[in-house]
Amino acid sequence: MFLKYETLESHLNKELASLYVLTGDEHLLLLEAADMIRKAARDRHFGEREILTVERGFKWGQLHAANNAMSLFGGRKLIELRIPGGKPGKEGSQTLQEYAAELNPDNVTLITLPKLDWASQKTAWVSALQKNGIYIEIPSIELSRLGNWISERLKKQNQTANKQGIDFLVERVEGNLLAAHQEIQKLGLLYPEGELGFEQICNSVLNVARYDIFKLNEAMLGGNRARFIRMMEGLKGEGEPLPLILWTFTEEIRTLLKCKTALESGQTFPATAKTLRLRGQREKLIQMAVNRLEKKDLQIALQQTAQIDKIIKGLRSDSWMDDAWDALMQLGLFIART
């Protein structure tokens, strides 16, 4: 049974199932959800906790043994199974299907997984977990939702901030939700309840943003030039490898060029997106970029990637620029122009 993350707390107030599955890459929210389940188990007198981690050499018989063994204190038990790689293998797949079909009512089992790819979501072991347990996909907090998330967290500690303060916080913690949580907690310790001033926030909050190359592409495709510049400067400061950034830019430009060519030949965008396997947010961003860029612009941009590759390798380039970071910045801004 699927359950929304936002409804987990109210669900646990009413009942406690024998099996919970948490999957996602937002580590703070996954940790908080797991803590809620642990607390609910403790409140219902599940006094013992056993943790199993699937790593190299893991014996899947340990899971059945933990489920069948009586608690040391004769009470009920919480079993945590952690699968950090997200792929249990053939034996693990079979074991999980058997386990989900024969749950021990004296135990609560909590399984944690990273965000699963499309192929993994269609496997028999995942279907068995979804059918027999409470399956919760932990949501990612995208940039567009981060401001509201911060406001809600501040509200929980009886504090508020105006838009300027929230926007400042978003810039400082983007891509690092755990650090965002810590900075919000720090504001609660430093200042009393009520509205926080912009100066108070500036004096308290560190720049703990972490930038992701693939989020950089979102800023470029979406035409968010200010965010693109901020992220490029952050990635440069973190020493991100230039070839990797160039590769991601090149792949996006090639995709845009294929899309533009298909549209000019009479294909519809939905059909083109299906052919190119574009889904979700990326499909929307590609469409935005294709609508504002001409085919000749994309051809020029693709030629420029070859020149930047030469600059990175220390070879002679036809480009008037000799700094690869500057050249990548200008290329990205060219794609991001509106």
Automatic annotation (TrEMBL):
<dbReference type="GO" id="GO:0003887">
    <property type="term" value="F:DNA-directed DNA polymerase activity"/>
</dbReference>
<dbReference type="InterPro" id="IPR027417">
    <property type="entry name" value="P-loop_NTPase"/>
</dbReference>
<dbReference type="Pfam" id="PF06144">
    <property type="entry name" value="DNA_pol3_delta"/>
</dbReference>
<keyword id="KW-0235">DNA replication</keyword>
<keyword id="KW-0548">Nucleotidyltransferase</keyword>
<dbReference type="InterPro" id="IPR008921">
    <property type="entry name" value="DNA_pol3_clamp-load_cplx_C"/>
</dbReference>
<feature type="domain" description="DNA polymerase III delta N-terminal">
    <location>
        <begin position="20"/>
        <end position="137"/>
    </location>
</feature>
<dbReference type="GO" id="GO:0009360">
    <property type="term" value="C:DNA polymerase III complex"/>
</dbReference>
<dbReference type="InterPro" id="IPR010372">
    <property type="entry name" value="DNA_pol3_delta_N"/>
</dbReference>
<protein>
    <recommendedName>
        <fullName>DNA polymerase III subunit delta</fullName>
        <ecNumber>2.7.7.7</ecNumber>
    </recommendedName>
</protein>
<dbReference type="GO" id="GO:0003677">
    <property type="term" value="F:DNA binding"/>
</dbReference>
<dbReference type="InterPro" id="IPR048466">
    <property type="entry name" value="DNA_pol3_delta-like_C"/>
</dbReference>
<feature type="domain" description="DNA polymerase III delta subunit-like C-terminal">
    <location>
        <begin position="212"/>
        <end position="317"/>
    </location>
</feature>
<keyword id="KW-0808">Transferase</keyword>
<dbReference type="Pfam" id="PF21694">
    <property type="entry name" value="DNA_pol3_delta_C"/>
</dbReference>
<keyword id="KW-0239">DNA-directed DNA polymerase</keyword>
<dbReference type="InterPro" id="IPR005790">
    <property type="entry name" value="DNA_polIII_delta"/>
</dbReference>
<dbReference type="GO" id="GO:0006261">
    <property type="term" value="P:DNA-templated DNA replication"/>
</dbReference>
<comment type="similarity">
    <text>Belongs to the DNA polymerase HolA subunit family.</text>
</comment>
